[in-house]
Design goal:
Structural class: alpha+beta
Strand content: 15-25%
Order of helices and strands: EEEEEEEHHHHHHH
Largest sheet: 4 strands, antiparallel
Strand order of the largest sheet: 1-2-6-5
Radius of gyration: 22 Å
Length: about 260
């Protein structure tokens, strides 16, 4: 039986190794899931677990014996979001809670594609907020600040990047495919998520520099966006992971196998 140490952090880099085994007409689940958004307040958790045939999904209701959650505290990023660890200790669920048609990674990756699509646009919103904050700040600063070549150059470059991405240079193909023909491919979304988050992070860092010491105080939104974007750069596929996805699409060779 899995024993969860609730006296200290369990946030190491190890694998969760969540597994499910048949038990009569139902299933028994054991393992942990970390970094689950709204994990402690959700009424139902969708849990992906390893079975003899590969990977499949299950619905686990809040209050099921053996199922518990623990919120992750001490975050410096995404602080407005409830982030939890799900702990499954001999959790028995009925056959009807098994997502029988969800086999392999296609199920969870299908969910990720939609999440990544939204992230690609949300990152640009954060970038534009940082840009406009830095622009207003430098325009209202002392004349010596406003005249500084470095600030002028930084504002121009950040504005160009933010405006280009806002116009959808790197998200428009995915949007058109999704809303028009309905033939959006995961590679469209990987391209948009990879590029937009990376550019937004650069813009937020430039904006923080332009605000000087004020760039780290919560009177301005820049440091909040910058820290949140550090997390956005990691979740739902890192920059490098999406690079590999695009490389596979271009060359036909997969680095995941």
């Amino acid at each position: 039986m899995l024993r969860a140490d609730r006296t200290g952090p369990r946030l190491g880099p190890g694998r969760d190794g969540t597994r499910a085994r048949r038990d009569g007409d139902g299933w028994i689940l054991n393992g942990t899931k970390r970094w689950i958004t709204n994990g402690s307040i959700a009424d139902v958790a969708i849990v992906w677990a390893k079975v003899d045939e590969g990977i499949t999904g299950f619905l686990v209701e809040k209050g099921t014996p053996g199922f518990s959650t623990r919120d992750i505290h001490g975050k410096f990023s995404m602080r407005a979001s409830i982030t939890s660890e799900l702990i499954l200790e001999d959790v028995r669920i009925p056959k009807t809670a098994h997502l029988e048609k969800a086999r392999g990674l296609k199920g969870p990756l299908g969910c990720l594609t939609q999440a990544r699509y939204g992230i690609a646009w949300g990152a640009i919103g954060a970038a534009r907020s940082c840009y406009h904050c830095a622009l207003d700040y430098t325009k209202s600063a002392q004349a010596i600040f406003a005249a500084a070549r470095g600030l002028s150059t930084g504002a121009g470059e950040a504005g160009e990047d933010a405006d280009r991405d806002h116009q959808g240079t790197d998200g428009l193909p995915a949007a058109r495919a999704s809303e028009g023909s309905g033939q959006m491919r995961p590679e469209h979304v990987s391209f948009a998520k990879r590029n937009n988050v990376n550019e937004a992070l650069k813009i937020s860092r430039d904006a923080r520099d332009m605000l000087g010491a004020n760039g780290i105080v919560n009177e301005y939104p820049v440091i909040r966006h910058m820290l949140n974007l550090e997390t956005v750069n990691t979740y739902e596929g890192t920059f490098d992971v999406h690079t590999l996805i695009l490389g596979r699409d271009i060359t036909g060779e997969s680095a995941f196998e």
